[in-house]
Structure formats: structure tokens, C-alpha cells
Design a protein that fits this description.
The strands form three sheets. This protein has a six-stranded parallel sheet with strand order 2-1-3-4-5-6, sandwiched between helices. Strands 10-9-7-11-12-14 form a six-stranded parallel sheet, with helices on both faces. A two-stranded antiparallel ribbon has the order 8-13. The protein is globular, with a radius of gyration of 22 Å. It is 42% helix and 16% strand.
């Protein structure tokens, strides 16, 4: 049996956040073993075909053999994906159990499992796939705040693995700093997420939270770099554009809905202090990986039946009527943020007391010792030998 993976196929659903997680783990495995990395996109399935293949027929994949997995791939429009994998393995003359198929998210997970089965290789998933769960995979990397069931194939992480490393921060940070007309050595980066099923960042939030932060930056002579995400509403982006227009402290504003560039690595490399909205696990994780104490910006929590059910679940957990892993939505993310705070990786930002945390308290560890992608890679390599 091969004692180290010789090739890694990153199976992508084209969602940037998922690719950052799986790609981060793959890059570290490659660095530690010399394994070649190839990225492959899954077919886009929607409507009835998507439901039939990804939600129904995929649930039988754990029980099929290699031939059955190959048949599923054919039916799911992934024949070309299968052929490309076979060609890549043949080109390196790789025997079974010498390559890894790796993905993040639910949409790519069935393809990852099927490709591994059809080629006689191993499979890994980041996060818990909604249909398959983690049990069918050789390796599963799941955030601790999801409270996954324990298993020999499972590693829990704090937050999300990502692509951030010292080399990327140095390169991107230096490039960004050279392009900015900066008047200050102290730079603050503000990472703003957006609306989802649990959180909301309306225009009023910018007035209530972002404005005091910018006023504090102006008083202390700090330059501010801001980026929004693809989830940020257009109304909120318009409000932010209006607020920062003419502000002497603003040195960069990247709107995630309009600019394809991801400035986060550059901001983490160039800034001395990072602020993150609470809704984004990925941005908080990236900030911590980049050696920063992430200053958490609280946003609005959506109301309605969903919130009532979350609150009810929390009460039942507090009374020991339900297991902690039953928490979901905002209470689950609150636990994650509390874990970051407990390890000194995050702290609360209070907009009513903006001067409470001195600007100097931003960098945590120049050695970048917190890196869940690297830890996951080391875990996979260690288990590969058994």
C-alpha cells in the first residue's frame, strides 16, 4: 500500500468558499508530500434531474461497488470527469489507494465518493454533506460547531480550513500596500458578509456599526480598507459607498457583488487590525489563520418562526432535554465565535465604546500557528499510513 497520497483531485462545485476550504487542505497535502493537485468541476444539475440524482440516487452510493459508482457518474453527466480522473491516474501509473478525491459542500460530495469508488482510490469531504453524511468517506473534516458524531474517519476543526498561509499573505499584502496611497502605517481591514437564513446586514447596520468604527479610525489616524461579499445586499453596498465617499481614512472599498477579485488575503497581509461580521465563518477563520485577532462586528438576527425554533432548541439543550449537537442556526455560530474568543483568536467590538480596544491589539501571532487546513492535511497523511 502507498504510504503517502501521490495525487489529489479537488472536486469543485464552483463555490469560492468551498474551493477555499478543499483547496487549502489539498495545497498543504501537496506541500508535505509532493502530491500533484488537479481541480475538476462537477456538472451543473438542477430541477428534477438534480433532485433525482443528487438527493435520491446519491444516497445509495455508499452501498455500490466500483461498477455501480461508474454507472452513477455516467447517469449524472460526469463521464468526462471520470475519464479525466482515469487519465490522470494512468499518466502517473498510480495503483489503487494512492490518490485522494477531495471536496467541500454537499453538491460535490456524491461525485467525490463515486469517483473514489470507481477508481479504487480514497475520498475526503470538508463539512457534512446533507444526503450522504460523513460515514461513507475515508476522511471527513467537519467544524466543531456542527457537533458531528465521533468517528475514526472524522477530524473536527475550529472554523473552516482555508487557503491562507504566510507566503500568500506576504505576496498579496506587499502587492496591495504598493498600490495604496497610504498616509498611515496603521491599516484596518473590514470584512463584511451579508444576508442569509440567519443573519441580515441592512443599510441601517452600516449607520449604527460601521460609522462609529470609521470615526474611530479617523481619530486615531488609521487607514481603512473595506470589502463586502457576494451576499451583501445592493442597498447596503450603496449605503456604504455613500458613507465612505470623501472620507480621508478610506483607502480601499471592494464591492463583492461587482468585483470578482477576492481582496481578503491581501488585506490580511497588509492590515494591522481586522474586523469581521459575525455571519461569515470563512472570514473569521481566515483572519485567525492570518495571525489576527478577529474583531467581531455583530449584525442583525432574522426574526420569525426560524428564530423561535432556534430559541426553543437552545432552551431544551440548556435543560439537557436535547444534545448540544442539536443546536442550529445562530446559537451554533455563537458557540463557534465563543470558541475563537476562548482561544484568543477573536474579540468583541462594541460600537458604543469604539475606543475600548486599542488599535495595537490586532496581531496575535506572527508565526501563524493557527492553521486548520495544515492540521487537516497532517491528519490525512498520518492516517493514510494505517
Amino acid at each position: 500500500m502507498t504510504v503517502l497520497p501521490a495525487m489529489i483531485f479537488v472536486i469543485s462545485d464552483r463555490i469560492q468558499g468551498h474551493l477555499s476550504q478543499s483547496g487549502g487542505v489539498a495545497r498543504w497535502i501537496s506541500r508535505l508530500t509532493g502530491a500533484e493537485v488537479a481541480e475538476m468541476d462537477v456538472p451543473r444539475l438542477s430541477g428534477w434531474e438534480g433532485l433525482r440524482l443528487l438527493k435520491w440516487k446519491a444516497r445509495f452510493l455508499p452501498r455500490v461497488d466500483g461498477r455501480g459508482a461508474a454507472q452513477w457518474l455516467q447517469e449524472a453527466g460526469a463521464a468526462a470527469l471520470f475519464e479525466r480522473a482515469l487519465s490522470g491516474l494512468a499518466a502517473k501509473n498510480l495503483p489503487p489507494v494512492s490518490a485522494l478525491f477531495l471536496s467541500a459542500g454537499s453538491a460535490a460530495a456524491p461525485y467525490t465518493l463515486a469517483l473514489a469508488k470507481a477508481t479504487g482510490q480514497r475520498s475526503a469531504v470538508v463539512m457534512t454533506p446533507s444526503v450522504l453524511g460523513t460515514a461513507p468517506f475515508d476522511f471527513a473534516i467537519v467544524p466543531a460547531h456542527d457537533h458531528p458524531k465521533k468517528g475514526k474517519n472524522l477530524l473536527t476543526t475550529l472554523g473552516a480550513p482555508n487557503m491562507i498561509d504566510a507566503e500568500l499573505l506576504e505576496t498579496e499584502g506587499r502587492s496591495l500596500a504598493s498600490r495604496l496611497s497610504s498616509r498611515a502605517g496603521n491599516k484596518w481591514g473590514v470584512l463584511i458578509g451579508g444576508d442569509d437564513g440567519n443573519y441580515s446586514i441592512p443599510p441601517e447596520w452600516a449607520e449604527r456599526v460601521l460609522k462609529p468604527l470609521l470615526e474611530t479610525a479617523e481619530k486615531t489616524g488609521a487607514d481603512v480598507l473595506i470589502t463586502t461579499s457576494r451576499r451583501t445586499s445592493s442597498a447596503t453596498e450603496e449605503k456604504i459607498v455613500e458613507m465612505v465617499r470623501g472620507s480621508p481614512s478610506i483607502r480601499m472599498l471592494v464591492l463583492g457583488t461587482k468585483d470578482p477579485w477576492n481582496p481578503v488575503p491581501a488585506m490580511l497581509g497588509a492590515c494591522q487590525r481586522i474586523f469581521c461580521t459575525e455571519d461569515s465563518v470563512s472570514m473569521i477563520s481566515e483572519a485567525a489563520t492570518g495571525g489576527h485577532v478577529a474583531h467581531i462586528l455583530r449584525v442583525e438576527r432574522k426574526k420569525g418562526l426560524r428564530k423561535c425554533l432556534q430559541d426553543l432548541t437552545t432552551k431544551m439543550v440548556d435543560k439537557n432535554l436535547l444534545a448540544r449537537r442539536r443546536l442550529w442556526g445562530v446559537p451554533r455560530f455563537d458557540l463557534m465565535i465563543e470558541s475563537f474568543r476562548g482561544r484568543g483568536l477573536a474579540r468583541e467590538y462594541n460600537p458604543t465604546k469604539p475606543d475600548e480596544a486599542p488599535p495595537a491589539q490586532g496581531r496575535r501571532d506572527e508565526g501563524l500557528s493557527f492553521n486548520e487546513a495544515k492540521r487537516a492535511a497532517e491528519w490525512i497523511i498520518q492516517r493514510w499510513k494505517t
